[in-house]
Amino acid sequence: MTTPHRKDDTHVTIKQGWQGRFYEDFETGDVYQHPLGRTITETDNTWFTLLTMNTNQAHFNRQVGESSEFGRMLVVSPLTISIAMGQSVTDTTQNAFANLGLDDLKLTAPVFAGDTIWSESIVLDKRESSSRPTAGIVTVRTRTLNQDAVEVLSFRRTFYVHKREVGGASSLFPQAAEPLTVEGA
């Protein structure tokens, strides 16, 4: 979209950001390496543990963590799962409207404060929805690796995703009264 913003007809172009995939964009066997890694801090771990009322002190008590077989506090598993699922949204469920299942969850290696985790997903299956003609059902397997390329968890997730013709969750970016201009920067 190009819009004139000055009397001398200078134009700026608004570039749309990534809007996510629709049902038609998924193909079985496609792999998405999600672009954002996330370093987990001790503060992240403590807050998430206490917020979710997990009373296992191995996650928030240094003495208990140090006396464990790991020799330090563990990152609470639901935090790792939440980050992994969040990392996958930009490539898989940006245009989804419902998760249908989370299956085969495996926690394969411990995660510690200071670890950076990365996730990637492979499309396992897709099919038309029999009850919603404007959507399809996609299943992916996501795995999460730490900074040493060790897999720390994996899961399968099935979700409803909009078809392109419907558009799904469109952006509600507010339109400013005064547009951005090169001269105003």
Q: End-to-end distance, in Å?
A: 20 Å
- Assign the structural class, choosing from mainly alpha, mainly beta, alpha/beta, alpha+beta, or little secondary structure: alpha+beta
Q: Label the CATH architecture.
A: Roll
Oligomer: single chain
Count of the separate structural domains: 1
CATH topology: Thiol Ester Dehydrase, Chain A
* Residues in β-strands, percent: 25-35%
Give me the Rg, rounded.
21 Å
Name of the CATH homologous superfamily = Hotdog Thioesterase
| Beta-strand segment tally | 8
Number of discrete helical segments: 3
pLDDT below 50 for ≥5 consecutive residues: which ranges?
none
Average pLDDT number: 90
Could you spell the SSE succession in H and E letters? EEEEHHHEEEE
Q: Largest beta sheet, briefly?
A: 6 strands, antiparallel
What is the secondary structure topology, with strand pairs?
Layout: E1 2-4, E2 11-13, E3 31-33, E4 38-39, H1 42-51, H2 62-66, H3 77-89, E5 96-107, E6 116-128, E7 135-145, E8 151-162
Antiparallel strand pairs: 1-2, 3-6, 4-6, 5-8, 6-7, 7-8
